[in-house]
# Entry
Amino acid sequence: MIYFDNNATTPIDERVLEAMLPFMKNMYGNPSSVHRLGRIAKSAVEVAREQVAALVDALPSQVIFTSGGTEANNLAVNSAFGRVAQSAIEHPSVSEPAKRFIPEIITVNRDGLIEPKTISELIEKRPDFVSIMLANNETGVIQPIADIATQLTERGIIIHTDAVQAVGKIPVSFKQLGVQMLSLSGHKIYAPKGSGALIVDKTVLLSPLFLGGGQEQNYRSGTENVAAIVGFGKAAELAKAELDARQTRMLSLRTMLENKLAQFSKVTIFAQTAPRLPNTVLFGIDGVDGELVLLKLDQKGVCVSSGSACASGETEPSHVLLAMGISTQQAQTAIRVSLSHQNTPAEVLEFIELITPFGD
Ligand SMILES: Cc1ncc(COP(=O)(O)O)c(C=O)c1O
# Structure
């Protein structure tokens, strides 16, 4: 099998699983318990907090563990107030909860990027809370969040960024980005599903989604998912230590894939000239339905996505491509390859061979 769908989810790293197992077996204490087993669990959660904080250059006290990226985004948007704005390409876990604010939509250009003049126009509309993702899950396009955050924060505007896809693929510094909130998800970085965090600057007041026992500084009540948090922490530690090597590996595979794709006259790589994640290639073959290619590849044991995983199964074209001004017809051709450092050049070559009948 060839797994090229790492933006949808990643396999659990063996070392992450090893770290988790004791907490699924004999170290089953509740971190709120005062006895020995409770203390062991509590200190494991605190180690994970430090590991996650270190990955994104934040303070451990700024980490609020959640059940994943969706909850982190919901917690951030639930804390919004006044006039709200979001980019046109946000993940539904931002855009759906934001609907109740009837948000201002921040447009992107044909490369999937937000232009400086769009931010100037936004500022004139005096928003109170803005959510813009750091890297897009479909195109991999990276927004200039640090520049945008500087302009917004100096006017007292709160900015949240969804860094779920960026983290582990490019360096992410909460401090340098200058945002007030940043969302993370464990299962995109080789940790288990159901782990994640919202990193939050303590000058901002959060409105919790869950009320109860007051865990996570009162921002996320509920007994901690200790094993998942431990796994997330270990995955964060590994992602930090191996970031350079992983980036280099992913970029060399991506370059190889894109060079091969360039040989097909009918292939378009979307947002190719924009700054992008080193692992993501969103492309289309003229006149060929992306969903059809996906199904044919699946029969050959190759896992890719057509647009975002959450959108597959729907026949709707990607809202991200439409926001970039791509026609509905061309958007229907989109196929997303999202690589991992665990992939190999041989897999890229096999993939190219398999799509050749469509591309030629
Ligand atoms: C950009 C982005 N944000 C948020 C999420 C949701 O994260 P989770 O699956 O951990 O809820 C995803 C997952 O696909 C994503 O790609």
